[in-house]
Amino acid sequence: xxxxxxxxxxxxxxxxxxxxxxxxxxxxxxxxxxxxxxxxxxxxxxxxxxxxxxxxxxxxxxxxxxxxxxxxxxxxxxxxxxxxxxxxxxxxxxxxxxxxxxxxxxxxxxxxxxxxxxxx
Length: 120
What we know:
Order of helices and strands: HHHH
Number of helices: 4
Shape: flat
């Protein structure tokens, strides 16, 4: 098997995985904000790299579509969908969590530790 054939096969597998990932996430009913170690490892090794690739690919698509979206007046909306959405899902959530956004657990824990240290 040539290198080119292997690269095509790997690209096809990656694209299929990217297409199936949103369907698997929608199929989840309950949202667990206290992920176990397997969810964290899977997120770190699978979901985050795919999210980073989708963010870069979205930026490339946005850049190509920029002349058309500027003419239509929707460049900001396109950037939000193609770049900011994948970036938020990749970089703005806890490891293993499914919902983007900061939970504030670390901030609350640091406040508690500081209050305990001040009381001592």
